[in-house]
Automatic annotation (TrEMBL):
It holds the Pfam family DUF1232. It comes from Planococcus wigleyi. InterPro entries: DUF1232. It is a multi-pass membrane protein. Keywords: Membrane, Transmembrane, Transmembrane helix. It is found in: Endomembrane system. The keyword Transmembrane helix applies. It comes from the Bacteria. This is DUF1232 domain-containing protein. Residues 69-105 form the DUF1232 domain.
Length: 158
């Protein structure tokens, strides 16, 4: 059964874009309905769909080596894992906050290894990717090593 699953073609670019837009709309709606949520937290949560999109595109980029793709895969798995530090099933889209921190950690690692253009050409977000990575890194790097995916990524980047 696994071999059959692997032989299936990836969803079309249109279906991938639909998923991305639906996820962005869901997160935006959550943020709009939570005016009491601290502004910076909701601001970071809004980047979750963009970062997930970037990680999936990096996974498909042939210029990225296998070791780096393992780190990207760890970041993607953290997004889709049903149980993580802040599970979305319990917290709602606010649970993407830890996913954002892990994704930025992975992307920052890639930015230190590959030319910036290799990463930024896949970026679909509205804000400058490098500014976002710097902003989140400044506030989140101290927490990422405590997260399971953060430890896994550190293992691959040694």
């Amino acid at each position: 059964m696994t071999n059959e699953y692997l032989k299936k073609p990836m969803p079309s670019e249109e279906k991938q874009q639909d998923f991305y837009q639906k996820l962005r709309a869901k997160v935006q709606k959550w943020v709009d309905n939570k005016p009491g949520v601290v502004g910076t937290v909701s601001g970071y949560v809004l980047f979750a769909p963009d970062l997930f999109h970037l990680l999936t595109k990096m996974m498909l980029d042939g210029r990225i080596d296998a070791k780096s793709k393992a780190a990207v895969g760890a970041g993607i798995m953290y997004f889709i894992a049903p149980i993580d530090f802040m599970p979305e099933i319990l917290v709602g889209p606010g649970g993407f906050l830890d996913d954002v921190v892990v994704a930025v950690f992975v992307i920052n690692t890639l930015l230190n290894k590959f030319p910036t253009e290799v990463i930024t050409e896949h970026w679909a977000g509205d804000e400058d990717l490098l500014a976002l990575v710097k902003k989140v890194s400044n506030s989140g790097n101290k927490y990422v090593s405590k997260l399971p995916a953060g430890r896994l990524v550190k293992r691959f980047t040694k």
